[in-house]
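Support case: user asked for a sample of complex input and structure output to validate their parser. Sending the pair below.
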Amino acid sequence: MYVAVKGGEQAILNTHKLISETRRGDPAIAELTLTQISEQFGLAVDRVMAEGSVYDRQLAALALKQAQGDAMEAIFLLRAYRTTLPRIAMSEPIDTSRMTIRRRISATFKDLPGGQVLGPTYDYTHRLLDFALAADGIERVQAAPAAEPLDQLVPRVVDFLGNEGVIQDERDDGQDEVFDLTRQPMSFPAGRDQRLQNLARADEGFLLGLAYSTTRGYGYNHPFVGELRLGEVTVEIVPEELGFPIAVADVTVTECQMINSFRGSAEQPPQFTRGYGLTFGHNERKAMSMSLVDRAMRSRELGEDVRHPAQDEEFVLSHTDNVEANGLVTHYKLPHYVDFQAELQLVRQLQTEYEAARAAAQSKEAAE
Amino acid sequence: MSDMTTNYGDDGYNFAYLDEQTKRMIRRTLLKALSIPGYQVPFGGREMPLASGWGTGGIQITASVLGPDDRLKVIDQGADDTTNAVSIRRFFQTVADIAVTESTEEATIIQTRHRVPEAPLTEGQILVYQVPEPEPLRKLIPRESETRKMHAYAEYGAMQVTLYEDIARFGRIAKTYDYPAMINGRFLISPSPIPKFDNPKMANNPGIQFWGAGREKRIYAVPPYTSVHNLDFDDHPFEVQTWQGCCSLCGSTVSYLDEVITDDKGSRMFVCSDTDFCNTRQAEAPAQTKVAGGQS
């Protein structure tokens, strides 16, 4: 006779041993070190830091190692760890115009003060497999440093447009408390602080898809990359006992300012508007997607029709978080014996009734 | 190409990268596109070693029409020296080993993004446009199933209405680029994001014009000497952009000008976006004093 196994504690312990074994792979192959991951899988680490919202390369590398390179699992690990950390302070807003620039491009002006700085980008590589990378010990090409260092202060492109008054003015709204998605529940209508925070942690793939939909007609806004910049910025905090800002860290960030045309409304003159994206680490795709979706979600305040998914803040904000999305979708793997049994009973009963009703109708037809 | 980290010249890729069957399929598409001017012909677009939306449609067309004796010119925003143009030109130099040129006149094939060269084309030349969004009606109706029906019934009233709405609201048609054009009196096209300044150059052109949308897998064409009508109204006729000044480098008053920010205070100058046109003019008039124009 078959008896259902109770508990499953032993089975769970065994899966842990199995993943440990699978993660390690062939023991004859040297084990990956965290430094190797953080140095050579830099972009994977950056994504995990951004969506895990913890700026720590070592931890992100550890999460990636533990998750066998599965970005979403690694993000999950980091988020869960993040919960256990106390909040020491709120930083001052970072000043990206003082960024130590590694890459800075504008698609709106051919040339501009500070220049176009291509930096490290795959954009102009041809996507052909480089078989030389498969070999060990091949000497890699190295870039020679520029003769002149870049300016300390590289003006932001949208500020030029701002000075001319052709782009919608944006400034600090003087609000003391910034919405904190990690401590407060989501609320609607959501302020821009809440929306941007959500997008900064949002799943890159989902955000990319939403951003793509806005450019393919589901919420059309023709975007121009006003500026995309990558580099290091200093994070400062003002400790209460000191009363002046002190630098606590240098972090790598990617910032994107997207310019969109706006034909104006009854209250506002025709002008450009912007979408904003900022992420930890080198995450251009994410920063661009973020700024596109940010702009799409401003439809309501700009008096545009809200007709498409990317413009609907409730739709977007409720579905961007991959830790949450992953949780609900994968929970279907959990046992659902009890509710399924209830459904099964009901379907059987309804089927019987359906058949009976049909048979009755047929016999009535035959009689007529 | 010793300066490149990837060397694919000798890795056994076919001439111009694509295999012969793919090229034949694309050439058939091109013939069909020429036979039905302005009609978007679906084709089996391939994955290319460049991101979709970066010119893969144009590259697939160029690869299919390119022969060993061709001279290829690649421009982006009208310029031969912009990053994307350099990258694509380098691609064809390595996978097809063909001659390249920056001269519009000398080129047999010109692949472009965003501009039609200022210098007129001649018979036998092929202009290949990279186009991100082939469907002119998409912004009005995002669903492909609907827009295809609208093309079938030549139902273009919706586009005319959006232009009218601009007039009602702004007193003018507010479309500045990707200006809808009717080809041969039948199909409406999205003429790639070229500024409307370039639309008149498409009409009755002696050259062959192809548009390739790789991501959306559509090709369309305007054969030589074909009519191109830019949608407008009798009392609001189609008109193109004009500038107050002239090019700061060559003094041209007839070309499309780009704005360049020159200092932190936001000073600007205007220069031709078509680098070959500008350079040619500068070379032809070395004695002539340069006219500084367009400063603000």
